Amino acid sequence: MEFVNAVEGINLKKKFKGFELDIPKLNIPQGFATALIGENGAGKTTLLNMLAGIRLDYKGNFRFFDKFDDKDRETNPEVKEKIGYTGTGNYYLPSWTISQVSEVTKLLFESFREEEFDRICSELDILNSDNFSKKSKKVSTLSDGNVMKLMLAGAFARDTKLLVLDEPASPLDPLMREKLCQMIREYISDGNGEKSVFFSTHNISDMEYVTDYAIIMEHGHVVEEGFVDDLKEKYILVKGEKKDEEAAREILYTVTTNPYGFEGIVLASDIDKLAGMDVTTERASLFQISVAILKKTSKIKIN
Prior knowledge:
The chain has two domains: 5-219, Rossmann fold (3-Layer(aba) Sandwich); 231-297, Alpha-Beta Plaits (2-Layer Sandwich). It is α/β, with parallel strands linked by helices. The longest helix has 17 residues, at 174-190. The chain has helices at 44-52, 70-75, 77-82, 98-108, 114-123, 144-156, 174-190, 204-207, 228-234, 245-249, 286-297, and strands at 5-16, 19-29, 33-38, 59-64, 68-69, 83-86, 162-165, 196-201, 213-218, 221-227, 235-241, 254-258, 261-267, 279-283. A six-stranded mixed beta sheet has the order 6-7-8-3-9-10, with helices on both faces. Strands 2-1-4-5 form a four-stranded antiparallel beta sheet. Strands 12-13-11-14 form a four-stranded antiparallel beta sheet. 33% of the residues lie in helices and 29% in strands. Helix 5 runs antiparallel to helix 6 (144-156).
């Protein structure tokens, strides 16, 4: 599928002791929700922080909206206005009240809508109250989940073209993850093809509903990417009986065994090699595809 990039990264590199992020080309399609998937330590947060300008000590460059580069991101207020970000660290000072969060965000971003911020905070039940009269409550008194909700309210209350969300689902309960998916879908739908979301996640199953494009990382490298529907055409779930396990193991991309048989992922290009075996095929989920790819490329050995 042809698409326009909301963000394009070229020759992105960042070295740490014992680790190097090295991505020759990064594509984040415009008008879609893109999930960044990988193990702990794969480089997801590093990449998102580079893209958002939280980390500047990297090599390579980004191009935003086919118009701006990463230097513009730092010097042109128009670029910062177009990008919303939520992180996993101390994004807001613990001593700030929710009123102060609103005031500071309003000072930083012209497009911030205080009434919309209040509405989202109330809708997400951040204060566990039927009204929004407790804005004197401090960030330090909020749970991890409510701090994430507060960050999301700050980002969604702005007029942006790109949201960069680092593990937004991790501290949220299942119901709120469903609400987050709804918020992302509505954000993209309201953008008429111009709004995009780039988020990292460990909760692949919960976030699959909202994921259009997936980028899978392993140890600083992109090992697979593509639109989810295309990935589900490329990787097929296979289930078979124990008697065919050894023969199938030579063909399958990855395989998991149990006392009664096996299942695994096979590349669509290899499916004909299973002819004659007593197997069934199913459409794989993004979770199953991601686990298979990470299992194949990970330094962690899983039988």
